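Database export, one record per block. Field names are fixed; values are copied verbatim from the stored entry.
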Amino acid sequence: MPIDLHIGHLLSVHGLFALVAVLVYVISSHAVQQRRHPSAAVAWMLFLLFMPYLALPAFLLFGFRKLPRPASPVPAPAPRGQSWAVETIMALRQPAPAAYQDLAVHLDGDEARNALIAMIAAARHSIECSTFIVGRDRLGDEVMERLCAKARSGVRVRLLVDGVGYLMAGRPNLRRLAAAGGEFALFVEPLWSSQKGRSNLRNHRKLLLVDAGSPAARLWCGGRNLASEYFEGEGGERPWRDLSFDLRGTFVGQAHDLFERDWAFANGTAIVPESGPAPAMEPLPEHDGAQLVASGPDQEDDTVYELLLTAAYRARERIALSTPYFVPESALLLALCLAARRGVRVDLLLPARSNHRLSDLARDRALRSLAHAGGHVWLAPTMLHAKLAVIDDRLALAGSTNFDSRSLFLNYELMVAFHKPEDVLRFGSWFSRERASATAYVARAPGLMRDVGEGMLLWLAFQL
């Protein structure tokens, strides 16, 4: 066969395969009503056109970020007189505010560990725990042993661990919990999962519930995984700085409902139910109570992202953000920059060097933009893993969500929205204490190669 005919044949085959790949992308995206940012859609299209043999398998494995779901009912409006934060959260199909008491904001890893161990010890009927990682270390072993002891005593113990986090932790021995009479499940095992197209969607939610449904129900929550570096350090290494808290009250029921949905999905025992507003209830006084804000493939909206975007435009005096990784979507970055330009005090607290080097390299463009707009960027001397947003004296958001595209658009995450002014102030004080040891970021113009490298890394922002 002449060379030109051979090349023409190859081009025809390539074009046909690329056309099929694009059709698979368009039809499947329409069928499951996937919403994508324009830049992500363009990136997928270019990848499918020019490298269809790699792009099509990648799309089928990683290209779906929302679960198929029926059309949602129009959310119930928030009761009149509520704050913009409550109204926005309920408009995003999240529960109404619920009462809580005895909030403890943990000052350090030792206090967080003591609260966690005390809650496990106090359990009488049930323990439900969801985490990304259970470490094969002193802290992970201690928690597992205490959970096993409770299971042997007749307490119902359920442990949900993310499938990727399980591999990252070196495959800890979770079967010992089953041997003790407890239950465990992996959330979307990579490669082996029956949930096709879900391998890239990780359950990053972190909570521990004790005796849910009883007057003694209590919730432990925040950013800490069940591993030593998040609490007390290991092998002489300094522990990471992180944020967690515990509380009791009727609010705990919202976290329990979320755990039940995740547990059912991980075990394939039920379809994830449609999220929606909580049943009608007597409204709490304005600026009172707390709301669970779930984010991820099981939510129709990008809830935490849309709440942060709204908060940036509604803030009047202060925005304080703490996150280990800051690779924000362009609209969120613009909203923060505009807030700084109109006189809102915008403080962003990050580790000087995180545990993800690529994320550190990719963040500088956003940091320069925020600093040039008048924002204040602070670099903590040690690894800071806390996730917190404080808006004026109206709202504090604390939980598992990093302020980067992976957490905001791909992961299963949860945040707790606190509205009580005195508790918003407590989270603000935690932020101020952490910021006191940080140094100010100094924006420097990048060289050509650095600028090009940052741009290329931002193409991978969803994976960082």
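Remark 1: Confidence is low (pLDDT under 50) at residues 272-281.
Remark 2: The first strand starts at residue 101 and ends at 105.
End of record.
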